[in-house]
Amino acid sequence: MKENNIWIEELFLKVDDYFTKGEFAEGKKVLEEILEYEPGYGRAHNHMGWLYYAKLDDNAKAEYHYKLAIKFAADYPAPYMNLTYLLNFLNRYNELVDHVNIALAIEGTVKSVLYNELGKAHEINANYSEAAKAYKNAIRYSLNKDEMTMLNENLTRVKNKVNLFERKFIFF
After folding, report:
1. Torsion angle, CA of 106/111/115/118, rounded to 10 degrees?
2. Which residue from 42, 69, 113, 167 has the fewest beta carbons nearer than 10 Å?
3. Which residues of 71-104 are buried (b: 16+ CB within 10 A; e: fewer)?
């Protein structure tokens, strides 16, 4: 059994190499081989999900694989992050909020990124108070100067939207 795990890990490393080189068709073939042999290999499902989302524009298949990755590798942070991006892209607001709350508890997920995605979801759905809270939490967890700049810009943008859309104007 251990020899099979080594074989799968070696194949999985080939996938990363193919993806790095932009050889996505070859990487997909190897992922299919891995999943044919070991359908419960969560990391392969995550990579397959990423391929469908980022390169093949098939969001349904991407979601399917991300969810399988989470099912089979519940402690692997990547599919939680990737599913967050997908749900936000699809503006599936309620699902995203629930998912981020789960993802925040997974060791290794990037909390600043999760809160930023949550902030964007709140903002796009005109829930500005919650967006501001999420962006502030993202700032709390950020350790990167450029990310901090972007997050502060997000927070300023939300404040401007509140001033524009939520203030009561009195016209005389």
Report:
1. -30
2. 167
3. ebbeebbbbbbbbbbbbbeeeebebbbebbeebe
CA distances to 52, 91, 118 from 96, in Å: 19, 8, 7
Same domain, 68 and 145: no
Tell whether 89 and 119 lie within a shared domain.
no
Ramachandran bin of 126, using left for φ above 0, alpha for ψ from -120 to 50, beta for the remaining angles: left
- Between these two residues, 172 and 125, which has the higher pLDDT value? 125
Range of the domain at 80: 1-95
User: Amino acid letter at 80?
Assistant: Y
Please give the single-letter amino acid code of residue 160. Answer: N
The answer for residues whose C-beta is within 8 angstroms of residue 122's C-beta and 6 or more apart is 128, 130, 131, 134
What's the pLDDT tens digit per position in 5-53?
A: 899 999 999 999 999 999 999 999 999 999 999 999 999 999 999 999 9
Domains held by the chain: number: 2
In this structure, the answer to whether residues 145 and 67 fall within a common structural domain is: no
